[in-house]
Amino acid sequence: MERSLYIGIIQPSSPPERELLEKGLEVLRKKGIPFKSLVDLEESPPSHKAFLLYEALTCGKFTHLWAVRGGAGAWKLLPYLDDLFKESYVKQPYLPQLIGFSDITILHAYFWQKFGKKGLHAPMIVHLPNLVGEAKELLWKVLHQSCKEVKLSGRAYQEGEASGYLLGGNLSIVASLCGTPYFPLKQELILFLEDIGEKPYRLERAFLQILFSLPKGLLKGIVIGDLGDMEASKLLTSLREFLPSEIPIAYAFPFGHIPNNCPLLFGAKAKLKVRGEEAILNFPLD
Prior knowledge:
This protein is α/β, with parallel strands linked by helices.
């Protein structure tokens, strides 16, 4: 039987400003979405944050856990989560879906790697009042499961077709996962990336770190969203000699630190088709 929607609002990264939190929660109220805020507005030790997250995950009350904001701090939770999770928990049938992006990329990767749990790479609570474009309605459709598939359009960079598990998130954070046991490398993947506030040389270095770390043949496609002040096409061109020539690559997709931040399903089996000037990314929501 399908569970009724019930959101737990969590704070695994930086604490939010009270005013921004209230504005975000008001959006949920107007949408008639039931929730419970677990946010304390204070910076607390990673061990405490990890325990609160573990409790929210295992209490059995929530269908989703929605990060209030990103910032920094999620990385520090992982060793504590390793200690808290026991092998017996993997056998439990239910785990709430995590919602967030940016620094929350760390936790999406962790739960996919540990449990095969798909996460919703989507705007966080403080971003909800500023959503525009297709993201404004698509997020609610995905949340209420009123659509079976998401289809997003971007611009072509390198033609081709591919299928693979949709993994990625914030470019700098994905790069920081490389070489650690927390990066999910078990499956063929379509890598999706976004970032903001990074200088071009830092983005180049992070991108190369990912490319050089992935086992040969694992990477089936690359999808880039918003990169802040850096044009994605320029980043790709600057690294063209290092890009796999046999995979489709596309950019200018509507996700990242922008008002039109469309949801992606981390871990979904996606398809990428790049032909002419058009690129289409689609994935099921089951």
